[in-house]
Give the backbone structure.
Amino acid sequence: MKIAIIGAGFAGLTTARHLRDFGHQVTVFEKVHDVGGVWSTTRLYPGVSTQNGKDTYCLSDYPMPKHYPEWPSGQQVQDYLNSYADQFNLKPLIRLSTPVTRATQSADGRWTVTYAPKGQPEATEDFDFLTICNGIFSAPAIPDFPGAAEFKAAGGTICHSSEFLNRDDARGKHVVVIGYGKSSCDVAVGLEPAASSVTVVARELIWKMPKKLGGVLNYKYLFLTRMGEALFPYITLKGVEKFLHGAGRPVRNSMLGSVQSLITKQLRLKKLNTLPRGSFERIARSTVSLVTDGFFDLVAKGRIAIKRDTAIAQLLVEGGRRFALLKSGEKIPADIVVCGTGWRQEVPFLEADLQARIMDPRGNFRLYRCILPTGVKNLAFNGYNSSFFSPLSAEMGALWIAAHLGGALALPSEREQLDATDRRLRWMEERTEGKHARGTNIIPFSMHQIDELLADMGMSIGGMQRFMEWQMPVKPGSYARVAKDLHARIG
């Protein structure tokens, strides 16, 4: 088949490689000038690094270089993806600086892709199948602040955390960072050496996980194992999980309570007035935020201020100076407002009626296994299953798509697919308090979803390996055999 892929991040690259290796003719469209997706050099803000260690944040048969630190920088991840594209000869398939402006489907199910190469007129090309890999971080979400126009006219800057790429632009300025997720804290620490002041304004403080609990135990031994995942109730419970959330719940609660007490003490949360509301269990509502190196030390030293449980009510200009008025009534200096306020999941190149067919009334993506929209032929999504192991999740998704195209999946009826998808979305809505990135964020249930994809393909990594993953962090390399086994089955 002739297949178009939109996006050249982890999902786009691994999809391109595996679909090509299964004999398909593949073209990848990437809107910016390099590969990487969220790790593109166009998004590498000061201080950005991975949340996972390099041994868990990689593709199955291509480990990150040994000389990389345990938590690679954003530039190192982009270098890794660039080398992956070279290693597997993907660059001839990729059209860089070529955004897709429109993708329309004809009555026979084929796709016409309209694209706009930089400096050239729009062009079109027909494809048999379309795979959307533009990611769940496709468009920065920036609040509409009252007074923003006047603020910017007076020389103020408002931008998303992914857009603030040069630390020197903050030199001598008063910086206000909105949000308390990892990107917000990364930016605060990254700009602090240059800025006159850094203030973090957070509507809600969330629990954060130190890279090493108690300064000793790497967090991957707690949360990047099947046991760590089982501490949180999945949509269906069986085996050990059924025990942990039934008769064994006191044991499970004690484990999480001990972690909460240790983190509270280690990060000095009470002393610094940064103790979140609610229990530590809420850390896994929709994502797990790792502590940025040095963040709490800078808070303790007064070099980063935190304004908790509030938000910007208005941006002001008074006497030639710029300020942010908070809903708490406090007014703080503000020359630069950096918004670590998340992303919008968008597919603007699809027609409105088609978007309506693949979403529920709340705007959540109705994708079976986070991949397949029911009722729309010749269309798949990959990377819409953000997890602790996003590269591995995307890779297994790519192989699932290859199996689907090769007729190797025994899928339930469309009605059953829709029912299962809607049931999952209702569960996610309740479990995450609505914070599930429109149905695309599966944290902390990374391995549950990978297991489901493998089961659909009739694949397994073996009982012994699964048993080891209950005790030790998951190793993507253990899943390299899946592609080989699938090739043996469908050629």
